[in-house]
Amino acid sequence: MNDDKYHAPLDTTTFQRIRKWYLFALAAIALSIIVAQILIQHHLNSQLDDSKVINVAGRQRAYSQKLTKEVLLLKELSDPEQRNQIFAELRETLAVWKESHQALQHSDVAMGISEEENEEVQELFQKINPHYNAMVAAVENILADFKDTGKSIPHQLYVDILLENERTFLKMMDTIVNKYDVLSKTHLQNLKFKEYLLLAISLLILILEIFFIFKPLSLQIRNTIKNLIVAHKKSDESTKEIKKLFQEKEKSLQELQELNFVIDNAALFASTKQDGNVVFISKKFNELLGRNDQDLNRPLYEILTTDEGQQQYLAEVLKSNRKNIRTEEIKIKTAKGDSLWLDMSIIPMHQSSAQQSILILCSNITERKQNELKVAQLTQANYEETMRQKQLQASQIVEGQEEERKRIAKDIHDGIGQMLTALKFNIESINLSNKEKTAEKIEYIKSLASDLIKGVRTATFNLTPPELSDHGIFPALHKMTHELSKLTGKNILFENKTEENIRFNSLAETNIYRVVQEAVNNAIKYSEANFILVTINFNDNVLSVVIDDDGKGFDDSILGKVPKNTSEGGMGLFFMKERMNYINGRLFINSIPGKGTRVTINYKTDSRELMATEE
């Protein structure tokens, strides 16, 4: 009997009692939470009503002042139309004022105001009503006179009544508004008290739950654990006897698990004797090699491949005495003529008879090898394509440089050369005896020399501006826009949004200058622009140059194409992109036909480069 009690489970009656009290505690906590939510929601609704009442009561003060102001305006205005408008506003103001006053005393569902039950507020309304009624009667009389007799100027008596009662009304209305505010605060204090009370009840329930539920349960669990420990000691004694019986079984089971692991993880496997003859080969491996059961009488290296060279290599590998696992990737040729790649693991096995055999585990990696070959081919193709693109770009750059040299030579020959020739001929043709002709030729020579100087300045300026190397990109761009504006007659403006002159490395400054120069020249030559704006800014280590023009624009779909030769055009845009790529910059070109073009240049630098250039 005692032994049955000792091994009995936890007391059912105790658990039923604990569960009953636990559910009761949870229900009490849930009830307190529900009650708290009901009180809070009720208070929130009450607060909404209080805010509406306070708002309407405060508005009554403003409307009383509005009534008085509109009545006084009737005495001041002389324009009939304005008087009619004031009378219309006065009627509307009076209607809203009366409706709000009645709602504050007797409730209004549409306005969301409930009937006022506070006796003090009711007494205050009884005191204010005579003044309210006097003001209402005065305004209604003014409106009645206007409606019946067309009299637009209010009688002074009504005005005096309105002014006399307005001040008292405002003071008493302030008192009412303050009273409403006090009542609202009182409601809030009541809610706080109720919430504190509910919190105390919830805490009390938690304390009772600890003493009457969790504490008895912990004692019960402790006794149960004590009983389990005693039972565990007895079971250990029995386990020691049983453990000996299972040791050999566990050893066999472990060997079986290892074998199952090999079988589960390698569907392609075979085992051989030390002489290479097959002991066993998996069905899947046999099917992959294209063999049947009759072929198993031959050595494994002959079964694996039909290629004689591969057979000789596999024979040496399989027959060599090894104590460690050997892994190789081997290409074989099946009986069906297919070439396969196998990842082969050769594992030496020692049996109890000391006769060594070999276990071969294989994985079919043909697909991986094919993918590796494809990747290598694609890599080679990409490399060749990249080199071809680089060669094409290099040839285009050389062609562009040659075209630029031809253009410079043509400008010097057609412009400066012809002017020098004309200058020479005019100097040689001077006849000092004919003073009148001599004077004319001297004036012509002066004009020709001026044009010659201007041409030389333009050519040298386009080649290498001294401002770029001496002072940097900011003054150089300013100088370029100024000179091009004078030479072309176009409105070319420069806007510098930076506070100081910042220097960059010479390579970046030169390439940015050339890109801006090309963009401005394109706007001058091709876009027929009347206005060109070059804006430069430097923020967060990013130099930004924007070139805007109001020209005819172009179809920007050509930007993604590389021109085949200079005769097709577009080489300027190509070289602009190449220059920015060379300095790791960004170039954005946006153009709308008929609306102009915007070219944006962004070049990001670091503080180390800036410090070096500033020094």
From TrEMBL:
The keyword Transmembrane helix applies. It is a multi-pass membrane protein. Residues 326-377 form the PAC domain. It catalyses: ATP + protein L-histidine = ADP + protein N-phospho-L-histidine. It is found in: Membrane. One of its GO terms (cellular component) is membrane. It comes from the Bacteria. Its EC number is 2.7.13.3. One of its GO terms (molecular function) is ATP binding. Keywords: ATP-binding, Kinase, Membrane, Nucleotide-binding, Phosphoprotein, Transferase, Transmembrane, Transmembrane helix, Two-component regulatory system. It is an enzyme of class 2 (transferase). Coiled coil: none annotated. CDD domains: HATPase_UhpB-NarQ-NarX-like, PAS. Pfam families: HATPase_c, HisKA_3, PAS_9, PilJ. The keyword Zinc does not apply. Residues 407-607 form the Histidine kinase domain. InterPro entries: HATPase_C_sf, HATPase_dom, His_kinase_dom, NarX-like_N, PAS, PAS-assoc_C, PAS-like_dom_sf, Sensor_HK_TwoCompSys. PANTHER family: NITRATE/NITRITE SENSOR PROTEIN NARX-RELATED, NITRATE_NITRITE SENSOR PROTEIN NARQ. This is histidine kinase.
